[in-house]
Specification:
With 195 residues, the protein is mainly beta. Helix content is 7%, strand content 44%. The chain has helices at 17-20, 98-102, 126-129; strands spanning 2-3, 14-15, 30-40, 45-50, 63-67, 72-84, 87-92, 108-112, 123-124, 133-136, 141-150, 155-160, 165-169, 175-179, 184-187. The strands form 3 sheets. It has a 6-stranded antiparallel beta barrel. The chain has a 6-stranded mixed beta sheet with strand order 13-12-11-10-15-14, with no helix packed on it. The radius of gyration is 18 Å and the shape is elongated.
Amino acid sequence: MRLEQRSENVACLKFSNKYRRGNSLNKSNLTAIAKIIKEWGVRGQMKALPLIDIFYSLATENQVVLNLPSGISEAMKIKSLKKLNKYAVVSFYEIDNPEIALKYRGAIIYADKSLLASLPEEVYFYDQLIGLAVCTEDGNSIGRITDIFPTGSNDVYVVKGPDREYLIPAIHDVIREINLKEGKIIIQALEGLLD
């Protein structure tokens, strides 16, 4: 069971005046695709951690939105994008030196879902799963997914119950059904999983 991105609340984006003027991106269709880790090189490139496998299907010249840690968002056009081990090196036309790139450290890159390749079956964007109810096969409610984090081999759902948090591995032995229409995930409570 693979997932496709960390949760970021698109509805909370505050767009700068630069974004508001004549930009055609639809806020409601944006999804987080990567997080900028640090500056890279002397030409304003940045090292980013992809939050989705299909991040590399995004073409250069496409417009994305960078949500800065301050909460302000800016629309930018991708100049280059290349893979670097588990990271990506990305550059934008609007950023041409490391001093400007420093301002974007920690920013989340959002893209319109229509610009990305289609997701394979049983693969979901993180924002589709955050908030879903989690129940066992026998109908016991565990809580709701509040966060998702990758571990390398699989993702882990952070499920907030009424009195504690549970870490649920996103593997086929545990996840029995993901039903987006009903807003729930059914799990098999393996021994020790909910202790």
